[in-house]
Amino acid sequence: MDIEEYVNKIKSKKLNAVNTIKKVISKVKELNKEYNCFITICEDEALEQARLVDKNRKGRLAGVPVSVKDAICVKNVQATAGSKMLEGYVPPFDATVIQRLKDEGAIIIGKTSQDAFGFGSFSVNTNMSVPKNPFDKNRSAGGSSGGTACVTQLADFPHIGIGESTGGSISAPSSFCGVYGLTPTYGLNSRYGLIDYGNSLDKIGPICKSTHDTALVLNIISGNDPRDQTSLNSKKIDYTKFEDIKNYTIGLPKQYFQNISPSVKKSVEEVISVLKKLGIRFVEVDLKTTKYHIPAYYLIAMCEASTNLAKLDGVRYGSRTSFTDSDNYNDYYTSVRSKNFCAETKRRIIIGTFARMSGYRSQYYLKAMKVRTLIINDYKKAFEKVDCLLSPTMMFTAPRFDEIEKLDPLQEYQSDLLTCGPNLAGIPMINVPCGKDENGLPIGFHIIADHLNELKILSVANAYEEAMKK
Ligand code: GLN
User: Fold this and answer.
1) Is the CB of 169 within 6 Å of ligand 1?
2) In the prediction, which pLDDT does 30 show?
3) What pTM was estimated for this model as a whole?
4) I need a labelling partner for 453 at 20 to 30 A (CA). Which of 92, 211, 274, 425 fits?
5) Domain range 3-221, CATH architecture
6) Which residue from 309, 410, 300 is spatially nearest to 361, judged by alpha carbons?
7) Segment 373-399, tens digit of pLDDT
């Protein structure tokens, strides 16, 4: 049952939201024991929302269960962003995207596991819970929105996931878990109520089971928000009104097809031949700045992250430690942060602080910002000739936890090679599932477009999805 069908049943009283949500909650409790996809399951709040839905029977998402990345604030529900440092922090307000979902009758069922503050690609850099891949529990669900993608794949009921991406955290887990994940243009969806990773990079987006569900959620959460100064004031579009893609030209960035695992390569080549049959023309594109994506991204992301985390001092939010008479504030600050941040968080604070110190700022942070402009121009040049770009989403399928343990941090950062660029440029992309590898693990491909061209990527995704149903 897709979301619209389910919502119609709720509205016409064929289904009762309280009964449905009771079943959903008991199901996700079971799933959580096996897959660790949630940090918090909000049973009482969900039932309260369901009672309201049964009373009103209105809204485009009446009674639809929603799982939200823990970094996005939901009123009166703990938000840890995957870190013990924020354990016990209960925001007294809803993020704008959550408010918009609730206004349409959606029901928040839980907050999902993730890399602490979004710092990772496999959801293992956390001292809370590590989600497991729905297709093999010895493997990663991807990161950092791993829990959201995991539960979206496992849910055998209508379900919406809400994730967040700084450099690939919607695409990577969607690819590893075999679901649709849309990273919007920077500023299309409000960031108000998001626990920031990197303010110039963060985007909130839907993770769903179909293109249509994804488009429907985007219709609801997008649009200007006066509470977020970086929120765009763009024209409202109905993203479910897909375009005819017959005359589209799609670019294949040659740098994005290097070092790809053979099964991923084969699968994406099959996608290209399906799309060719639908009338799409393909051309090769040269994205010369690709080699700068990872260094520029990690410098900017870590600089911004280290300033954002400075406010976590063990006084205002979340975890505290005991303060003794002999402590001075600096000792207290050090001890609470040493105890509650995990290793990757500390690494990023140290590197980010170093790179924006006076004397280094122009060598690192400001230089990375200039490189970012070159990267944006490189994409803009490509979009003069093509409607969209297509590439694999990840170079490989979900790795095993024991393989991830052996990676050093730089190797882990390299895994974002295909996702960092569009994220740095702030352009939209969608992961579309396209088959499995020899181990039965999902493969995904990316469609990327110029700023505010979400409708184009959704149209291509939908055309492929429909073609594969035949
Ligand atoms: N893997 C990237 C990082 O660690 C991206 C994470 C994200 O998008 N939140 O920064």
Assistant:
1) yes
2) 98
3) 0.97
4) 274
5) Alpha-Beta Complex (3.90)
6) 300
7) 999 999 999 999 999 999 999 999 999
